[in-house]
């Protein structure tokens, strides 16, 4: 009890010092958001209309294609990277639980321990040997049992968090766990985007195959007419050769497109976490539509929606917590330990708490002396890493705004190009009809037919490509705003 009285005042004084915790609480750094970037005006206008934020829209509501929705749902369940990320999150959760346990005392128990000590005649144990002689006992010359001891104990040790070291470690572990959650969101956003992009590429190739096969049939029909003219002596063999060459060129596009389609199909199956197999696509590229009733947001909202920005900020929180940990390591640490148990040299008295019981209470202060340079270096390194993390956070935000700007300009310019190609396609389609009529009437040559068909094929393929790129650009805008993980 006297030892307890002696240590309690000192313990209370040290605990009172706990209010002097080191480190700084995290505050989000000020970010100078750009007032001007491509599409900023249209975003502000749409914000005033009260439309929903695009990034806040669930991906099932954003995509209107039922087949695509089903494919994405399957990918989120079966994709191997998503499954591995789930395990990473569990690891982060276990580390967080461990950091919380640091605040609790550590307990240890020794249910029963038995010691038996052997000595010889010349063992340096003068007091014991003299006692034997005084009692008229002969000291044996061989090994003999000098003492038997029976012990059972329970020990506890508790480090008091005077300077906030354990608190900072807990904050760092929590931020690290939250960062893994954001990584999963970012992975899901990327997976949704890639599945949708691959699906659109397959629809594009499907449409291009339809165009190529139709053009091939048209070329065969042209060749048939040229051959009839050749048989009638109205044209030369050169006309037949060139028309046939044009037909074979149209035919050669088909296997190339079929190969590209098979590659995209294999990639989509990989994203779904399964072996290559045939996928039935019931929809067409023309069926693809995106809901345009949502606005895209402003830079401030990007922080709330983009997982990579949230992960970058959690990394900054971790760096700030590590500064507190390294600073606290430079100051003394206090550990209180105690134990209770039974100790007896006679087994018959072992269970008697009055005769064999004992209780211990110790307090220890550890002050690093010769490690001052090392601890100071660690603290300075942590300060620099916090500055780097802050710069990374700002850079991530600026990069996010740039991605949104690029997506907006891409959509705008692709739409302009798409409109031009649509108008051009109407002209070329009319040209084909006119060329056939003139050719059959003898007012146009086979070369004009070939040129008209090639021009129409090029425009049709380009229109399909632009439709696909426009759809992918909308997906990229959705992703760049942080959509796809809700």
Main attributes?
486 residues; alpha+beta; Outer membrane efflux proteins (OEP); 2 domains; 4-stranded antiparallel β-sheet; two-stranded parallel ribbon; 13 helices; 6 strands; elongated
Structural description of this entry:
- The protein is of the alpha+beta class and 486 residues long.
- It folds into two domains: 386 residues, Up-down Bundle (Outer membrane efflux proteins (OEP)); 83 residues, Outer membrane efflux proteins (OEP) (Single Sheet).
- Helices cover 64% and strands 12% of the residues.
- Strands 2-3-5-6 form a four-stranded antiparallel sheet. Strands 1-4 form a two-stranded parallel sheet.
- Helix 7 packs antiparallel against helix 8, helix 8 runs parallel beside helix 13 and helix 12 runs antiparallel to helix 13.
- The relative contact order is 0.16.
- Belongs to the outer membrane factor (OMF) (TC 1.B.17) family.
- It is found in: Cell membrane.
- It is a lipid-anchor.
- GO terms for molecular function: efflux transmembrane transporter activity.
- Its main location: membrane.
């Amino acid at each position: 009890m006297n030892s307890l009285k002696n240590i309690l005042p000192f313990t209370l004084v040290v605990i009172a010092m706990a209010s002097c915790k080191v480190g700084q609480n995290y505050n989000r750094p000020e970010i100078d958001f750009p007032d001007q970037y491509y599409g900023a005006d249209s975003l502000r206008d749409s914000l005033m209309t009260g439309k929903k934020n695009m990034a806040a829209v669930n991906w099932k509501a954003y995509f209107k294609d039922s087949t695509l929705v089903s494919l994405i749902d399957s990918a989120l369940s079966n994709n191997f990277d998503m499954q591995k990320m789930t395990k990473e999150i569990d690891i982060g959760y276990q580390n967080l639980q461990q950091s919380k346990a640091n605040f609790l005392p550590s307990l240890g128990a020794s249910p029963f321990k038995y010691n038996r000590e052997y000595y010889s005649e010349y063992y340096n144990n003068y007091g014991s040997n003299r006692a034997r002689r005084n009692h008229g006992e002969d000291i044996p010359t061989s090994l003999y049992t000098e003492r038997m001891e029976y012990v059972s104990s329970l020990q506890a040790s508790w480090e008091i968090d005077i300077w906030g070291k354990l608190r900072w470690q807990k904050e760092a572990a929590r931020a690290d766990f939250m960062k893994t959650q954001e990584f999963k969101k970012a992975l899901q956003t990327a997976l949704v985007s890639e599945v949708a992009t691959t699906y659109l590429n397959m629809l594009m190739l499907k449409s291009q195959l339809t165009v190529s096969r139709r053009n091939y049939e048209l070329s065969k029909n042209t060749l048939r007419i040229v051959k009839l003219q050749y048989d009638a002596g109205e044209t030369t063999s050169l006309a037949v050769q060139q028309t046939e060459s044009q037909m074979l060129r149209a035919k050669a596009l088909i296997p190339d497109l079929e190969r590209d389609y098979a590659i995209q199909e294999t990639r989509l199956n990989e994203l779904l976490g399964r072996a290559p197999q045939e996928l039935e696509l019931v929809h067409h590229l023309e069926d693809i539509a995106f809901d345009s009733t949502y606005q895209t947001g402003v830079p401030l909202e990007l922080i709330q929606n983009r997982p990579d920005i949230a992960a970058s900020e959690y990394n900054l929180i971790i760096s700030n917590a590590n500064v507190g940990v390294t600073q606290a390591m430079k100051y003394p640490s206090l550990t209180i330990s105690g134990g209770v148990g039974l100790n007896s040299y006679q087994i018959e008295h072992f269970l008697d708490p009055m005769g064999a019981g004992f209780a211990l209470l110790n307090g220890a202060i550890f002050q690093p002396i010769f490690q001052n340079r090392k601890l100071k270096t660690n603290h300075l390194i942590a300060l620099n890493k916090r500055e780097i993390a802050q710069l990374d956070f700002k850079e991530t935000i600026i990069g996010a705004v740039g991605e949104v700007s690029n997506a907006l300009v891409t959509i705008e310019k692709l739409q302009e190009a798409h409109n031009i190609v649509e108008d051009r396609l109407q002209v070329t389609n009319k040209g084909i009809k006119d060329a056939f009529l003139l050719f059959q009437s003898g007012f146009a040559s086979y070369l004009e037919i070939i040129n008209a068909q090639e021009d129409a094929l090029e425009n049709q393929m380009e229109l399909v490509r632009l439709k696909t790129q426009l759809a992918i650009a909308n997906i990229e805008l959705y992703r760049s705003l942080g959509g796809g993980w809700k």
